[in-house]
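This part of the workshop introduces the protein records we will be handling. Getting from the letters to the tokens is the skill we practise here. The record below serves as our worked example for the rest of this section.

…
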Amino acid sequence: MGLLLAGSSIISFSAVFTRLSESSSSISAFYRVFFGALFLLIFCLIKKEKLWVGTTAFLYSTLAGLFFALDLFVWHRSIHYIGPGLATMLSNFQVVFITFISILIFKEKINRKFYLSIFLALTGIFLLCGINWNGNTESYKTGVILGLITAVFYTGYILTLNFSSKLENNLSPKSNIFWVCVSSAVILGTISKFSGESFDLISNKNLIILLAYGILGQGLGWVFISSSMSNIPVSTSGLILLMQPILSMTWDILFFKRPTNIVDLIGFLLSLGAIYLGATSRKTENNNLTKAEEV
């Protein structure tokens, strides 16, 4: 459990690194997965993890990388519009979307907690974003919409990883995420190149921020989480992983002076409840599938 707590705490700084970076949204996303891939490659080589088990596993990793690249592409923009806390909270609604798809398409059984999670999610989003919707700026509205779109791409990413875990010849979680990082880096790098963005790291300070983002946020944090998830009940791991949005919101308030009132706090707590219930409402053998691939 200690590793899971440490991993959740580490990844809570992901949005903070994005906000602090001097690079554009696309470039900071590229360097997150680029440096993360280098770290995971070294880690897999030291641990003698298999990096290749066949074309099928590689194609699934590449598809997951596409979803993850789109996830980061949208999420980083959301962070700059509405801040690390709210952007992270909205992206974590992927657990509700995944459960809904599991019911609708895969006919998985759920319990009543899911229906309560939907109610809490809608109420929480309304309190956080909707009460003064017309009075908010266009950039704020764009950020909220992008945050919810992030959750959609995130859902595709997690489901693809779920399918890849069921392959007869599958990669270990760490090797799989390595290839996800590689394919994401190629996609994000290509988008940035054709958009005319500079890959210049700008300053030593920015290099340190992006290195920390890649090694900690994309690498070490998820190594800790993926190494401990299988030994902890889903309900417990789901609760502990709520530390990410909780701490992200905390850092947003402390570091970036996010204005927060009682209505925001209630909406935040209701949203956390929705995420937790959504994460623990599925009655499926794959419930341990590593939420370990969250932002």
